[in-house]
Amino acid sequence: MGQFIQFVITRATMALITLLTVSLIVFTLMELVPGTCAERYLAFKNTQGSQITIADIEAEERRLGLDRPFPERWGKWVYSVFVHGEFGDSCILRLNINQLLADKFWISLGICMAALLLSYAIAVPIGIISASSRSPVTNNTLRFVSYLGLALPNFLLALIIMLIATVYFGESLTGLYSKELRDAPWNLAKFKDFLGHAWLPVFILGWSATAFALQTVRALMLDEIGKLYVTAASARGVSGARLLWRYPAKHSLGPVINSLGFDLNRIFNELPIVALILTLTEAGALLFESLARSNDQQLAGAIIFLLTASIVALNFATDILLALIDPRVRRGMMG
Amino acid sequence: MLWRRKATAGVDQAAKEAYFTASQGQLIWSRFSSNRTAMIAAWALVLMIFMGLFAPFLSPYDPTIAGRDEQYENGPPQIPKFWDENGFSWRPFIYATERERSMATNFRWVITENRDERLYMQFFTRDWDYKLFHLDYDLPGKAFDVDFALISSDIHLFGVQGGQIHLFGTDASGKDIFSRTLHAIWTSLAVGTLGVFISFVLALIIGGVAGYFGGWIDSVLQMITDAIRTVPSIPLFMALAAFMPDTWSSETRFFFISIILGLIGWPTLARRIRTHLLTERTQEYVLAAELSGAKPGHIIRRHLLPSFTSYIIVDLMISFPYMVRSETALSFIGLGLKDPVNSLGALMQNVSKADVLLNYQWYFIPVIFFIALVLAFVFVGDGLRDAADPYSDTKK
Fold first, then answer.
1. B374 touches chain A (CB under 8 A)
2. Interface with B, mutate which of A11, A18, A260 (most B CBs under 10 A)
């Protein structure tokens, strides 16, 4: 037990170090954007009619602490993010980022997690069946679908679905809520309405994740199914689904759990683009907005950091989970 | 496959001999060429590369705004015909078009075909000037400017008499989508190649150093690599691409995008190189070289890297479609390449508009080429991976 706690602590420290490195990368990126927050804010004020001087900009920079050296500012940012969970104010919108993001980030995360779940709900059974089947038709179809998952990026799939929907059904299938409920507070009706709209982004985001997951599950299953213990079990009279589930499936799913973090990464990749096409109003769209349109470095940095943090958290959780369910991993990792 | 069948038959001694004396390259080629899917994909790939390479010759019109057809904006594809109700013709033809805008058409330009007036296709026609194998980059700094062309000409494969032919239709400003697609294939390939090259060099240096020295250098480099791998790459691409000022020329944008792709693409490859080096460097031949006084750089270059050149090539091939995909995604959302550079992503920029979805579906034709290009790369990459793996036969 003591060993296990030690293992958890080591993993948690490693996750924290990764997060710190990521925060450094993200913060440096934010700094590299031409122009500081102060300049941008005052440029905005300038358009409103007030005269701005160099002295004003400098005063504003001092107020925002932008005249401090880089490591100090990074330290401050990291401190407020890690200790208070506070991302500061958005540069352009002049709003608190936490308020701005609030449920939008959770909605995005929920949609992405649902896509991840969906992809494995499809990939695990089909992957196992296809690995045990000898039929060339099944295998070739599967291979084709997996390749299509790569060749047809999610945003293209979204476009094609929209093309078909507009041409044949006259519906555009965009957005996350119906018009009447957009600004309503959360309640059962809005939630139902949300589910009615959210299935499409979930499906589209899950698309290439499913293709990749299928390939992984199938390859791992193929490796296990040829092993001697499976032959031994079938010689003892275990057969059919019982044979597959009891023995090889159990073993081949370990590495799958391990790769969940990277699958989530892949889904996040598509999030801003799919959000753009389907005109969703959540964190992905906000990220696109802040990067492509308004150049809002604070907001963009916060979103990228949050996305990465959820991947790191998932990686940490799967590591622990794997150590809990698989004694081989436990032994290997704890020595 | 072929080799094995002959070897097990045990009659053809010569084939057996050839198998055992064949070089690594010959073995890989023989395995690759017996994989039918991979061969078809390879031919498709070669075809597309040539289409891109000779794009100016194959495309009848200038893909930039200079080659626009004012009389045929948002025009549907024109397919050459050999016969119609007025009879048969050996020379393929299309119909002349007219457009009008009036009360009757709700003040939209409407294009109608005049089925009585045929425009016959001609081959090797003269139109706009172009240069093949043309390098002309106006980079920041005079010393980097390049201007070099091998062939310059104005002959194009086909055209049409007394009008213009648009095989894939035209876009909103009357640019020929067929010409744009061909040029876009080349741009996307070029961006991908440059990106893969940059990420390859980075991966080689970082992975090589980490794998060869091991210890704390390895730990630190691994931490950085892992951190970069954890950040979702497209948001990172977007963040980097957002730095590009709008004032940059299209060439500068092109190079910047390639550099970004390279800068973000290296971690996966670096990791593989590191893992391989870590296992190889404990082998006896490395020890022998070290005892003979060889320097680390020499050992990495001359002994360790050649031991897995084939894996590197396969990895590069596999990472290629990801590069093309990322570039397309970036250009698609408007953060990548822009007019007048034609890339597959830039061509897809307008397709999500409701107007296009409802009325101008031929905007989607470049999408087919994109899918074909990526699929071809994936199949060739997979075929190469199987071919380079000496145990691939026994695994199945």
1. yes
2. A18
